[in-house]
């Protein structure tokens, strides 16, 4: 064969090889994106008091899931949420249900004000949770979730025993309505939360794992906390923070990925255990920051594509 013909043949082979590689890369990337979409969805926290506007806004951001923090539980609003969710193809995953009364997010007043551990606020908050569960049923929201307080480490502590009894009653009420209850991580160590869920035992109790709260409350690093609670984790709050250095105040929240949450390791572990669920992007440093939400969503999606 003549040299110029050999050169032309080699050029064609090389070009064909590049084309095949490019097609493979494109196909593989599309399959990876499809697998991510099938297994992991991304959400945001919204008020939910104006679902027609709010659902439209997050739909335009390319977000399909959300958690709602509704002010008043009325049948009219439940119907509006249900209708708007159907119209915009939005999936509310949980209703954040807390209050009434004071919540102090620190280590001094927090134990006596947050959740159902403090006796002072229990009756009104139990009533609120019942109303929230009923609202979820009407609005088509599958779960209610809350900070339930600084659950005592000692299972023989009177406050722990009282809490388990209260949560059994709430869990059974929610179970009857077909609603799940999610514990938000933070005030308790992961093993204490695991023990409480086990002792309550109604079968509809799960975890909304706030990765930064584990750090900011100084209870665990995020990956170890996830490993302890993974059996019950249904949803995540994607948030970042620093460990506390002031014994009276929580650690500081910072933007992802500037804090102590090791998101590459978290994502690698989620892929290892074949996690299926929603990662809700939470950002408490500003009321509305859609640029941050999109930036963070892109960052997390990239991690899911690349971490093995």
UniProtKB/TrEMBL annotation:
InterPro entries: IolE/XylAMocC-like, Xyl_isomerase-like_sf, Xyl_isomerase-like_TIM-brl. It comes from the Bacteria. Keywords: Isomerase. Pfam families: AP_endonuc_2. Residues 55-287 form the Xylose isomerase-like TIM barrel domain. GO terms for molecular function: isomerase activity. This is Sugar phosphate isomerase/epimerase. It comes from Mariniphaga sediminis.
